[in-house]
Design goal:
This protein is an alpha+beta fold. The protein contains 1 helix and 4 strands. 22% of the residues lie in helices and 48% in strands. A hairpin with a 5-residue loop joins strand 1 and strand 2.
Length: 54
C-alpha cells in the first residue's frame, strides 16, 4: 500500500506538541515513517494523518 502523510503532530517527553502541516510525504510503510520522523525531529511519539493512494 502507498500512503501520503499530510500532517504530523510530534510530542516530546514533556508532552509539548509541534505540528507539521502540509507535509505531503509519500511512504509505503506508515510505522517506518513514524520511526524516521521521530529520529529526525527528536520526539518521543508522533501522530500522523495520512491518506491511502492507489
Amino acid at each position: 500500500m502507498k500512503y501520503i502523510v499530510n500532517r504530523a503532530e510530534l510530542f516530546d517527553s514533556s508532552d509539548k506538541k509541534t505540528v507539521i502541516k502540509n507535509m505531503n510525504e509519500p511512504t509505503n510503510d506508515v510505522e517506518v515513517f513514524r520511526e524516521e520522523i521521530c529520529k529526525k525531529y527528536g520526539c518521543e511519539r508522533a501522530l500522523l494523518m495520512y491518506t491511502q493512494v492507489k
